[in-house]
Specification:
Strand content: 15-25%
Shape: globular
Structural class: alpha/beta
Helix content: 40-55%
Distance between the termini: 54 Å
Oligomer: single chain
Length: 457
């Protein structure tokens, strides 16, 4: 996997171009240039995982950084302060849209190039991995004439892709859509897009005040970052506008709490909020090499508890020439909350967090854990991926108020199942050997399956 270049013969311009093009071909989302004592390490993030790509000699480190700064519009003389830049160009018939960030470190400047790929947005909302139940709720949200719809998740969880897909679904000749973004990441024909520039006072809040005088039907705010933006966005949504935005929270309940912490009045939030789409990205199993394995008792019990399904087998990652250790691409895991009147009343009446949690998760919401496990059962991803993304304690306690599952032990058991699954694939004798492994580890499994009743009182 680690690549080498002939640094004596190849000019630095070609080396930079080849690194970027190769990263795009491999489906990378980011390129990291990490300064070290002896060399500069280059890593690429593929399907959410950072992997080593190559090393750059220290004699060429400064030239490489300067080249990237020049093509991204940065100040090459400034090495003490962080900078941001962008690259829009075409190399070898590949259109590139890149965001570049520099950060001064003890061993030199670290650069990160983010590769923007909105091909999923262009494919449409129906291709983003929503279950039928969640997709119907999304369409119901978009049919609302006013209110605010929030897409939430961590950095790099695909929020922008989802928001742009929602915008394209709403983009019609009869609507006036205005976006306020920092930066404008994808140009959409028929939509008025405004680039925020804080250096000249063109902030989210200032632009939003002017946007409201532009007779908009739909407003998209790139991100709710501060109290003022949150309050203006909510007020805009109750004056007859449909507002879309993103916010950095983990799930529906956290989103409501975050908005209340941003000094949004309860009565306004109760009347304005229409829906919340929370999401995380899991690595997608390679269709060519995935294989079935027998589930262990822990996994069987968990899926029975969460989905009320009885299963005996799930798919696991194998690895082939066309994928990365059994995975190829990523798939979104969603939690879609459509606000109902019960939740509105609870918000307005200032109910406790515990009561609000119960109302949210007793509605028709499918939690992140439920959606993730459904995708495991359907063969899209693996049990291990879901367990790494979702905190079982919070999700299961919030939904059932009964059992606590331990993440580390769950991962141990998944590894044990993979070991057994390797013996399960061929013949009855090998299946018997797979069972023997569990018998030998009986004490470990029993320890994992122990549950404790939570004392919420």
């Amino acid at each position: 996997m680690v690549r080498t270049f002939d640094y004596e013969k190849l000019p630095i311009v070609e080396i930079v171009n080849e690194i970027i093009l190769d990263a795009v071909r491999r489906g990378a989302s980011d390129i990291h240039f990490d300064p070290m004592n002896e060399f500069m390490k280059v890593r690429i993030r593929v399907d959410g995982e950072l992997i080593d790509y190559t090393t750059i000699p220290n004699t060429l480190k400064k030239n490489l950084i300067t080249r990237i700064k020049i093509i991204s519009g940065m100040n090459i003389t400034e090495v003490r302060l962080p900078q941001d830049g962008s690259i829009q160009t075409k190399l070898k018939d590949i259109t590139l849209d890149l965001r570049v960030s520099s950060l001064p470190c003890s061993d030199g400047e670290k650069l990160v190039i983010r590769i923007l790929d909105y091909s999923m947005s262009l494919k449409g909302l129906e291709n983003l991995g929503f279950s039928d139940h969640n997709y119907r709720k999304i369409l119901e949200m978009l049919a609302k004439p006013s209110g605010i719809i929030l897409v939430t998740g961590a950095t790099g969880s695909g929020k922008s892709t989802t928001v742009y897909s929602l915008l394209q679904k709403l983009n019609r000749e009869t609507t006036n859509i205005i976006t306020v973004e920092d930066p404008v990441e994808m140009d959409i024909e028929g939509i008025n897009q405004v680039q925020v520039n804080s250096d000249i006072g063109l902030s989210f809040a200032n632009v939003l005040r002017s946007v409201l005088r532009q007779d908009p039907n739909i407003i998209m705010i790139g991100e709710i970052r501060d109290n003022e933006t949150a309050r203006i966005a909510v007020r805009a949504s109750i004056t007859g506008h449909l507002v879309l935005s993103t916010i950095h929270t983990n799930n529906s309940l956290n989103t409501i709490e975050r908005l209340l912490d941003m000094d949004v009045e309860r009565y306004l939030l109760a009347s304005a909020l229409e829906g919340i789409v929370s999401q995380k990205l899991a690595r997608r199993l390679c269709d060519k090499c995935r294989r079935k394995r027998t589930v262990n008792q822990y996994e069987k019990d968990l899926i029975k508890k969460v989905l009320d399904h009885d299963i005996n087998e799930v798919y696991s990652a194998e690895g082939c020439d066309e994928c990365n250790n059994g995975y190829r691409g990523r798939i979104a895991i969603h939690e879609v909350l459509l606000i109902n009147q019960t939740i509105r009343d609870a918000l307005a009446e200032n109910v406790s967090k515990e009561d609000l949690r119960e109302m949210v998760y007793k509605s028709d919401v499918t939690t992140l854990l439920q959606d993730g496990l459904e995708k495991v059962v359907n063969g899209y991803t693996t049990f291990e991926e879901v367990l790494k993304l979702i905190e079982l304690d919070d999700d299961i306690d919030g939904k059932t108020k009964e059992y606590r599952y331990n993440l580390n032990k769950a991962l141990e058991q998944s590894d044990l199942s993979k070991e057994a699954g390797a013996l399960h694939t061929n013949g009855d004798a090998e299946r018997t050997s797979g069972v023997d492994i569990f018998e030998e580890k009986e004490e470990v499994i029993n320890e994992v399956l122990e549950t404790e009743v939570l004392d919420d009182k």
